[in-house]
Amino acid sequence: MPIANVKMENEAASYQKGAAFNLHEELGQEESYLKVILKKFLKHKLAVAGLVIFSLIILMAVFAPWIAPKSPYSIADEFAAPPSKAHLLGTDQVGRDLLSRLIYASRISLSVGLGAVAIYTVIGTILGAAAGYFGKAVDMIIMRITDVFMSFPYLMVILVLVSIMGPSLFNIIVVLGLLGWPPIARIVRGSVLSIKELDYIKAGVALGYSAPKVIFQHILPNCLAPILVNATFGIASAIIMEASLSFLGMGVQPPTASWGNMLTEAQSLTVLASQPWLWIPPGMMILLSVLSINFMGDGLRDAMDPKSLK
Amino acid sequence: GTGGTANGGGSKTMFLGMVNPPVNFSTINSPDVASSFIEKFMFDSFLEMDGPQNFVPKLAKSFETTDNQTFTIKLDPDAKWSDGKPVTAEDAAYTFNMVANPKVETTVGSYLSMLDGLDDNGKLKDGQTEIPSVKVVDDKTLQFKTKAPVDPNMIKEQLGTKFLILPKHVLSKVKPEDLAKDSFFLKPDVTNGPFTFVEYKKNQDVQLKANPDYYGGKPKLENLYVKIMPAPNLAAQLQTGELHMNVGIGIGKIPPQDYKRVEKLDNVRTKSEKTIGFQTMMFNTEKIKDAKVRQALVYALDRQKIVDKLLKGYGEVVDGPYTSVSPYLDKDLKGFSYDPEKAKQMLKDAGWDFDKTLQLVVPIGNKVREQSADIISENLKAAGVKVKTTTYDFPTIMQKGKAGDYDLLLMGFTFTLDPEISSLYSSSGAYNYMKYSNPKVDELLLKGKSEPDPDKRKEIYSELQKIWDEDMPIITLYSDDDFDAISKQVKKGEPRVFGFHKDIVDWSVAGAK
Amino acid sequence: MKDVLLEVNQLQTAFKNDKGEAVAVEEVTFRLMPGETIGIVGESGCGKSVTSLSVMRLLGSSGYIKQGNIKLEGVDLATLPESQMRKIRGNDISMIFQEPMTSLNPVFTIGNQMIEQIVLHMKLSKKEAKKYAVSMLQKVGIPRPEAIVDEYPHKLSGGMRQRVMIAMALSCNPKLLIADEPTTALDVTIQAQILELMKKIKDEYNTATMIISHDLGVIAEMADKVLVMYAGQVVEEADVYTLFDHPKHPYTKGLMKSIPHLEHDQHTRLASIPGTVPSLNQMPKGCRFHSRCPYALKKCTSERPPLLPINDSSHQVRCWLYEDQQHDSNAGKREVLA
Amino acid sequence: MFQYIVRRLLIAVPVLFGVTIFSFFIVNLAPGNPVEMQLNPDATAADIALKKEALGLNDPIYVQYIRWLENLVRGDFGFSYSTHEPVMGLIGERLIPTIMLMGTALLIAYLIAIPIGIISATKQYSWVDYLTTSFSFLGISIPHFFLGLGAIYVFAIIFHLVPTGGMNTLGGPGGFADTFSHLILPALVLGTGIAGNMVRYVRSSLLEILGHDFLRTARAKGLKEFIVVNKHALRNALIPIITIIGIDIPLLIGGAVVTEQIFQWPGLGQLTIQSISSRDYPTLMALNFIAAITVLSSNLITDILYSVADPRIKYH
Amino acid sequence: MNAISKENNQLNIHREPDSPLIEVRNLKKYFPIKKGIISRTVGHVKAVDGLDFSIFPGETLALVGESGCGKSTTGQAIVQLDPQTEGSVLFEGTDLSGLSHSEMRKMRTQMQIIFQDPYSSLNPRKRIGDLLAEPLIAHKLADKKEAYKKADEMLEIVGLTKFYRSRYPHEFSGGQRQRIGIARALILNPKLIVCDEPVSALDVSIQAQVLNLLKDLQKEFQLTYLFIAHGLGAVKYISDRIAVMYLGKIVEIAKTEDIFKNPKHPYTKVLLSAYPIPNPHLRGRERIIVQGDVPNPANPPKGCSFHTRCPIAQEICKVEAPVLSGEGHMAACHFPHSPIS
Ligand SMILES: Nc1ncnc2c1ncn2[C@@H]1O[C@H](COP(=O)(O)OP(=O)(O)OP(=O)(O)O)[C@@H](O)[C@H]1O
Ligand SMILES: Nc1ncnc2c1ncn2[C@@H]1O[C@H](COP(=O)(O)OP(=O)(O)OP(=O)(O)O)[C@@H](O)[C@H]1O
Ligand SMILES: [Mg+2]
Ligand SMILES: [Mg+2]
Ligand code: NI
């Protein structure tokens, strides 16, 4: 179609004259969405604090071999020794340097937390979106499968899967990832059901977009907030879950340290009462990373909320 | 005050703390030590072993043989079932027959395998219901005969102290195939021991009551509770006075990390005792074929450190299946001391491939053992051997062990004081996960089992221990001591490795403060 | 002259936000006599609702009255303690909102919500209050009031809900009724019903009414006098006939012209005000309308015009075009504001 | 409503069926086998064979499943492989303690979470809000065993306020007060764990409601802010809060394992762990079945509660 | 009607004069009401209950009526967003329900829709440029560069500037958003645009801008509009013909002037009379205020569906549904000439 140069008398004129001042202002702050989000995010003090702390933890994990003062496995003479010059955080019950273990453990715990949550968020999102968007039989079947999965003997399934695949970090992540999706699927389905009714989605259909395009490009980006909230909680639970898996011998394998199994190893009244260096540091690390992720999530959600951008 | 809030029992009640929950009270079909432990409060064994190979009469006034083949048991004439009926030789014979009956589910069948007239599994032939070699001589006298002469100590330990008899008059109507499921075993109401059953609250406690008509005299305690709790709680409850003692013997162990703390408590005293239980590391001899390599790996282990640090010194390093309690331990063995340099050298000499990674498989459930795995893998690494540790729950371990799906496997055992240990070392042994097969060993084991003379047996087992050190299919890592704490309120009674139930009738506690 | 019921003087209302504050209502001044109806018109976001909420003192935690006073029968509401203010709300001043669909609590019955207020202010027993509620529902023309009183809001149509809101608002015989876009969400035929009802009620109770709308038709139908607001300011105030016959402010004029009248000729173009309403954080200097004003003078871009009467009549306008017809008797006040 | 319930129950049947099939195969696929776990070291080959036969483990797995299903239809869960008790009894005796613990824990969770949630929602972005957020994360970051041990240490050992564990004082007078003193600590531990999660839900659902028009109406009536929040807002916020009961109950059944163990509380969680470690298939199957029923029925119950809390929702 | 479309007929000589662009035949859309154990359908909301009308190229047909009378449903059925239960929609003679998915997707370039709410009709997370270029790219009508160029041009056409392309919807006012919505609908160069209350959510001063724009665009691109509204003022300004709907049915359809000058159906009269006139001098005028609400479309009254509220209803109205009749100016009323007071 030849787009003719239509003259919009009134409006065009107005935009030249009246809106001129507006225009300049607005052109000056032409920003990308990402930048807007970033700016909003950076205003959120706690989110920034979270980002800083979390980045530090990530750095710690990445550069563990360079940061850790000792090998996380080598055994000193003093077992369960209190903090000292030689061992800044003391030694664990097998005489290993706690600080080093703590640093190395961040690799494991973060991979479990982030990895498992990433996997199940993807699965849950896809299934939930499909159920919500297509409705009818697809919805029915997916939701029944979700019910089945939710009423599953969780421990048993993990036991079987892990023993078939062998307990390794990767497999733990995969198994936790494969089992965690039902709540996400439900949440996403709910959001999709409500977003699907919005006019801009209808407009997408009217413009002749294919279903995957509508789902992935138009619907899903708009239900990020609840997914994000669930994911931050999920990370904490996955880190703790890994620890409780070692109850059944299915956790991260010794002598590898994770924050979770460092805590589990300290399961004793004596430790609780008189050897706090064994449990406070890993506990703090879990709390700190979970809190920082949460605050980041909060900040991100606020920053991405179109309402808050208005 | 301490204890005042905690138990409501008064001065005639005792509380014991245990970690492993008993499964059921089926005397002939209970799979675990905890069940047997509880059963022995309610059912008397023929004999009690109160020290290494020292047997004292219990239900049996006498347990004798003249030829080491025909044994005669005379039951206590006063022994009565709790319903007033006398305990008779018929009851004993009934129990023997039932255990040997191939239709009866049992876990104690092997105790009878040496009886004449039974097959190698200790079962009756099809169609038979009575063991021909077991005779009821009179009301109180039972006689049985073994296939060949045997060391009477072995019979006394197995049949004498572990075999509990059932009341025939209560159970005779139950079909053999239904016996295992009979409700009698959930609530044994006709028993012959010092205490009678009141209630078992699953995973909480077993409540027992004094049997006033006990032939050995009415117990001083009126009530006895065995409380079940996770190990970390033992120390707590000892401190609060909710417990009078832990039961020790592997089923009520205080975690070593609490030892110091418990020692410092002013309301309890502590004691420790050597045991016959031991923890091992098995070598899969099909995967690590070279005995020199296996020996080298043992040299690499700093077992003393495990004992000193993890067990806080309450334990010992031994090299074979016999701990220092056992009369059969060959004290002249030179043993394997920690020597990483030597280990390295030996490995090199044996042409060990230092790039190979060994799979160390560890069962979960025993904290110290899990921790020792960390030390072991560090030790081996120090010797240049790569190790990958994997933990599994127990059923999985059994499967992996059987399938030989491991290189190194940690496992603990408590056998009998008797040195018979074919199930571990014989090439057909049920626990021979090492796939260890040495015809000489098999022969000697058979010989040892059927040798009635203790001195000769000792020689045989000494030789075996030497061979095992040479072949090194399995190494004992340590034997941990029984560390027990007893409330100062207890006037008499304490946990014991041998003969726990021996003088239970005399046990007593002082009233609550 | 009768006593003034409500006197709003130089009201300025602001909201706290992360940048500091945003002034939503810059300058609003008006008086209301008992039984009189004042209409407030203006585009979305110009501060109509904030003005009414300021009178109710329901600005939420972030909003506050920055300047000015609001005198109800001589009592300054702007500084009244919250507990006193609560006694006035729902009693002396009542309010009807735009969205009848969402203004009633979905989990309580109609009766429940009415009784709550009646018991609170009229000190009746629950039973009496319910009877009274039923009679109020009857007054606003709800069929079967005895049954409806026990229904949940979702069972009612929008028009019915707005009737309930009116019944609720009137139940304590308020001196002042604030209706914030009472019919915007309703259909034309229903709107006509509600407007009719409001007129009837006003005649019966002689309640002073503040009616807010952006529909000039509704204002023409209901109001005695009209405030035109633009970007937080009153730009023109006049009695309804004057305003519609002789609008002065360019914005008011533009508004009047851009309404598609029914008698309007189909083939002539609609007049429209170019551009958009400036946002709160980008208020132009000088006259806030100057960027859209076809008659803007140089002065308009830099100096802010005051709201002054034209030729000493009751017709007030905020525009430099009429400077020579106005004389500033309030110079002092203007200085303060500038 | 009645019809709705019936329909939901009918839909639940295939789901239950799916769960049983899946869990039966999963349970049987687990390495290790029940027979070995029940024999002591000296068991003979004949004993093992007999046990296997007696338990029907020699049949193909689908035959075992059908047999199990047949029994189930007759209301029979079979006998435990390890204790030889009827599974029904085994579970029955733990059901009451489980429900008691769960109920109290939920109650405590709500008692903690709702006021805190309200405070942090009404004071959004204040330091109180951040503090409660941090505490709620503390709640989910601390493993239960740790919280449990800590509670025992503080309340039982240092202050002697409550016993360290169990359900009744042994040989004691029994009765409500006694049971309660045993119940309170584990319920508190469990409850605070859940509360952590719940505070966030209460907060966010209340925040959502706080922006609604009808609250302005309530304020315009002259109501006190307290009533506005706690009557008008909370009642609406309850609806999303109800959802998490549906999520929490199933979690509680399985998730109380550790707490039950530490406090020697005789609940289903402990039984689950034991059955897993002895590969007690019939008990495990029954537990899975009950868990599935709980999940499904708590879903149904929440849906019904929805319609009670929200008159707009009516099921047909 | 021909006066208006004359210009178009000249421009589109290849098209048969007077052949409708859209023909709606007996259009029905029932939404099921589900009940019972297996969610049996126990009834229907008859949202649209047998519509027949045509829209000719270049003309604007307005659809007015109260909330819930089925206007949007009709609009969405025409662009096949929510296909009809019964009846057919013919686009240039092609029955749309006979098309396959991919054929329908292609057909969508011919007809577009503009929504009422400018705030929910633009994806908040997409830049304006992307929003506009996306349809061209999705239909492979242009490569990326061209698409964005066209998007820029389109922005200029609707009176915005191309500098806005990298901004997000939230940065625009309602009127601007509605312009963007119009641009999006236009970019595929459709023949028909369904405007579902495009100005109801806008301020008075902005309404006029958008209405003018729509009218200008129609002239320029020979667009055909189905214009849905409930405000009569806007309708009067933009439409050539008006169809008045009540409870899923058309009760009157005629040229705009005819409707305003000479309404036949009492409902139309009521609508006209209820419309608040922005002139205080007309305050005291006679108005017809009907009582009661629109009946439930799941259970519409028998006979004439308006009889429950109709001031002139007779016995026959309760039993017999009137049919739409008349030449050019059609109304469905038994007493189309009775005056109402
Ligand atoms: N709670 C609030 N916090 C911050 N800003 C607010 C708040 N309420 C209103 N505003 C701002 O105050 C200005 C005036 O809003 P107000 O609601 O009074 O407009 P209005 O004239 O009633 O518009 P409408 O016709 O859309 O109802 C707007 O810019 C709005 O964004
Ligand atoms: N998806 C749906 N499911 C069930 N009923 C529906 C659905 N969509 C619309 N309806 C019903 O169909 C009828 C017509 O709705 P429609 O949206 O077409 O009305 P409308 O004339 O556009 O009203 P409005 O002016 O409020 O937009 C209404 O009664 C509505 O409740
Ligand atoms: Mg408003
Ligand atoms: Mg509509
Ligand atoms: Ni004309």
TrEMBL record, chain A:
<dbReference type="GO" id="GO:0005886">
    <property type="term" value="C:plasma membrane"/>
</dbReference>
<dbReference type="InterPro" id="IPR025966">
    <property type="entry name" value="OppC_N"/>
</dbReference>
<dbReference type="GO" id="GO:0055085">
    <property type="term" value="P:transmembrane transport"/>
</dbReference>
<feature type="domain" description="ABC transmembrane type-1">
    <location>
        <begin position="106"/>
        <end position="297"/>
    </location>
</feature>
<dbReference type="Pfam" id="PF00528">
    <property type="entry name" value="BPD_transp_1"/>
</dbReference>
<dbReference type="InterPro" id="IPR035906">
    <property type="entry name" value="MetI-like_sf"/>
</dbReference>
<dbReference type="InterPro" id="IPR050366">
    <property type="entry name" value="BP-dependent_transpt_permease"/>
</dbReference>
<feature type="transmembrane region" description="Helical">
    <location>
        <begin position="227"/>
        <end position="252"/>
    </location>
</feature>
<feature type="transmembrane region" description="Helical">
    <location>
        <begin position="46"/>
        <end position="68"/>
    </location>
</feature>
<feature type="transmembrane region" description="Helical">
    <location>
        <begin position="108"/>
        <end position="134"/>
    </location>
</feature>
<keyword id="KW-0472">Membrane</keyword>
<comment type="similarity">
    <text>Belongs to the binding-protein-dependent transport system permease family.</text>
</comment>
UniProtKB/TrEMBL annotation, chain C:
<dbReference type="InterPro" id="IPR003593">
    <property type="entry name" value="AAA+_ATPase"/>
</dbReference>
<keyword id="KW-0472">Membrane</keyword>
<dbReference type="InterPro" id="IPR013563">
    <property type="entry name" value="Oligopep_ABC_C"/>
</dbReference>
<dbReference type="GO" id="GO:0016887">
    <property type="term" value="F:ATP hydrolysis activity"/>
</dbReference>
<dbReference type="GO" id="GO:0015833">
    <property type="term" value="P:peptide transport"/>
</dbReference>
<dbReference type="Pfam" id="PF00005">
    <property type="entry name" value="ABC_tran"/>
</dbReference>
<dbReference type="InterPro" id="IPR003439">
    <property type="entry name" value="ABC_transporter-like_ATP-bd"/>
</dbReference>
<dbReference type="GO" id="GO:0005886">
    <property type="term" value="C:plasma membrane"/>
</dbReference>
<keyword id="KW-0547">Nucleotide-binding</keyword>
<dbReference type="Pfam" id="PF08352">
    <property type="entry name" value="oligo_HPY"/>
</dbReference>
<protein>
    <submittedName>
        <fullName>Peptide/nickel transport system ATP-binding protein</fullName>
    </submittedName>
</protein>
<dbReference type="InterPro" id="IPR027417">
    <property type="entry name" value="P-loop_NTPase"/>
</dbReference>
From TrEMBL, chain D:
<feature type="transmembrane region" description="Helical">
    <location>
        <begin position="237"/>
        <end position="258"/>
    </location>
</feature>
<dbReference type="Pfam" id="PF19300">
    <property type="entry name" value="BPD_transp_1_N"/>
</dbReference>
<dbReference type="GO" id="GO:0005886">
    <property type="term" value="C:plasma membrane"/>
</dbReference>
<keyword id="KW-1003">Cell membrane</keyword>
<keyword id="KW-0813">Transport</keyword>
<feature type="transmembrane region" description="Helical">
    <location>
        <begin position="179"/>
        <end position="199"/>
    </location>
</feature>
<comment type="similarity">
    <text>Belongs to the binding-protein-dependent transport system permease family.</text>
</comment>
<dbReference type="Pfam" id="PF00528">
    <property type="entry name" value="BPD_transp_1"/>
</dbReference>
<feature type="transmembrane region" description="Helical">
    <location>
        <begin position="95"/>
        <end position="118"/>
    </location>
</feature>
<feature type="domain" description="ABC transmembrane type-1">
    <location>
        <begin position="95"/>
        <end position="302"/>
    </location>
</feature>
<dbReference type="InterPro" id="IPR035906">
    <property type="entry name" value="MetI-like_sf"/>
</dbReference>
<feature type="transmembrane region" description="Helical">
    <location>
        <begin position="285"/>
        <end position="306"/>
    </location>
</feature>
From TrEMBL, chain E:
<dbReference type="Pfam" id="PF08352">
    <property type="entry name" value="oligo_HPY"/>
</dbReference>
<comment type="similarity">
    <text>Belongs to the ABC transporter superfamily.</text>
</comment>
<dbReference type="GO" id="GO:0015833">
    <property type="term" value="P:peptide transport"/>
</dbReference>
<dbReference type="InterPro" id="IPR013563">
    <property type="entry name" value="Oligopep_ABC_C"/>
</dbReference>
<keyword id="KW-0067">ATP-binding</keyword>
<dbReference type="GO" id="GO:0005524">
    <property type="term" value="F:ATP binding"/>
</dbReference>
<dbReference type="InterPro" id="IPR003439">
    <property type="entry name" value="ABC_transporter-like_ATP-bd"/>
</dbReference>
<keyword id="KW-0813">Transport</keyword>
<dbReference type="GO" id="GO:0055085">
    <property type="term" value="P:transmembrane transport"/>
</dbReference>
<dbReference type="InterPro" id="IPR003593">
    <property type="entry name" value="AAA+_ATPase"/>
</dbReference>
<keyword id="KW-0547">Nucleotide-binding</keyword>
<dbReference type="InterPro" id="IPR027417">
    <property type="entry name" value="P-loop_NTPase"/>
</dbReference>
